[in-house]
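Re: Re: token formats

Sure, here are both.
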Amino acid sequence: MARDKIYGLRNTQAENGLKPKLLDQLREAMRARHYSPRTEQSYVHWVKRFIFFHNVRHPDELAEPEINAFLTHLAIKEKVSASTQNQALSGLLFLYRHVIGREIGDLGEVIRARKPTRLPVVMTRGEVKAVLAYLPGDKRLMASLMYGAGLRLKECLCLRVQDIDFSSNEILVRNGKGAKDRITMLPESLKPLLHAHLKKSRTIHEKDLDEGWGRVLMPDALDRKYPNAPREWRWQWVFPQQKRWKNWKTGEEGRHHTHETILQRAVKEAVRKTGLIKRVSCHTFRHSFATHLLEDGYDIRTIQELLGHKHVGTTMIYTHVLQKGGQGVRSPIDGL
């Protein structure tokens, strides 16, 4: 019962018109501010951890010392990374500021997890080519777009047909990290493959329409403003699921975009087949995109815009590739 009381798993109060439970309020506050589902899931997780760390006491009864103790525990006992500790703190600050309605003051001497300086894993051009060669069909096209346009995994999978501008050789990335839109390039070599892929996808979409379905989820409740838009071709996913999802209660069917785990598994298998010992993931294609542009002499500000980084300092980490062998210094042993 204590768990239900805190978590709001039994939402009888909400059903009776009373104030919803704490975590329901947290979710509502985040959705009202258009936080991503991933961030919502993370913040809810850390609030739960915080509550149970303090023996299921309501956060309204807790203050700065308890937050300090929780964050210090994460750093010392659980040895979490600095980014994980910061994420936990952000979740708690959001809870107190927007749900409980109280600002958090000085947290005192919080023991902070150390933030190491990490260099991104980058593939050479030959390694990128080898990994792409082992990817089948549309998986190769997805990975090629991530490398050729510097897309994040979710940005690639969430592309809609209207986001691809073949005439201007541009891709419009909508609602990227930080809820920002940006424009990046459409690689010339991928245009024929994309045309062929979209032709097949349109055939599937038209078949769905003929069978009475073909509606797609719309952003920001646009389907209420434009009721026919979810059926239009321009709003369809570039990379739709192979099978339609089905609501067993209503009988409604539709297609979402390809799930990220499908591409992640395909890339992992392709890397295994190439024999690479580097820790390559889908995001490595984006790192390689930025690094290879720097090697080709493009300026850091241009690359920052293409990647969608808020600060140029974030992009600067890729300049390590220009410092080959210790600031470009030739080792004396190479002269023997």
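Second one below.
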Amino acid sequence: MILHIDMDAFYCSVEERDRPELVGKPVIVGGTPEGRGVVAAANYEVRKYGVHSAMPAATARRLCPHAVVLPARHSYYAKISHQIREVFHRYTPLVEPLSLDEAFLDVKASEALFGSSAQIGREIKIEIAETLNLVASVGVAPNKFLAKIASDLDKPDGFLVVDPDHVQDFLDPLPVSRLWGIGKVSQKTLHKRGVHTIGALRQLSQAELQKLFGKVGAHLWRLAHGIDDRAVIPDSEAKSISHETTFDVDITDTETLRSWLLELTEQVSRRLRRHQLYGRTVQIKIRFADFRTITRAHTLSEPTHITQEIWCVAAALLEQNLSAKYRGVRLLGIGVSGFADESGQVSLFEQSEREKQGQIDTITDSIKDRFGQTALRRATDLKR
């Protein structure tokens, strides 16, 4: 069985934990009290007013003028994320992080030691609450797709187990929007045919879905039948390390996208350095407002884990693939692959510059680990 563990309103929950006077108040992390920038996270209290992540801070301010607005402390959240993963690793080595606040765990081989998958999920949830004073929602299911849906359905403070013998009973009543790959346009196409639930979609043949959606049709058919064969792959065994974020609203401002991509690049670079990995290929993923998804990659002459080198490639790929007519971006991601044991001596930069950039990364990591993300920031990131 697979667990999907997702921390509830993670950034905001950390701030509320550290400042108990915030509990029960609407809290926004990111942006500024004056309404500049973008919301990085919103707690459940402020979501009642329609505020959500990736929303312009000025809009959030109008919706909830009395919200408490706090600066994001990403490296501090990263330290706590590391503590959470230490809990995971006490139960299984098969942990695949998706971001700072969520991960997949494969616990099949751990059941002989710790009990059923459901028991393990309960124990992890309790341990996180007792040792870190944070709340996690847990989904337990036969595969990744089902586990992720399960953890989301019962939020906040959720715990949901999908019985392997009753997968269709679980899936069929859910709206088709729960399927990965179904956007607003796809929903309209299905609704016109009277298909509103996964159960109704399951009545369509694979050929019918492929006629409607092309190659994606086969993917939707498999998910509607609860089929997902992807394995849980930990960082130490991964062929790539990546981060992506899905925006609650489509982002139309290019500078905002660049700023988000820089943050994702820094997260990926730090993970590479933490595992002493050097990657040769940089890839970005863009999902547009119409749900069209593209991936674009560039392979370097020598592998690297230097933030600036990876960022130069990622920023260029983003610029090359945002047409003047794009109507917004729904998802943005970056990954690095093509690992080697160590970096070569030649790169995009002269060796002296590369050494300087490596020193900057080392110092930056150290300062952020100690004082938090906002203690030291790249100028590009200030635009967000």
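The first helix runs from residue 10 to 18. The chain has three domains: 1-144+152-161, 168-224, 238-383.
- S.
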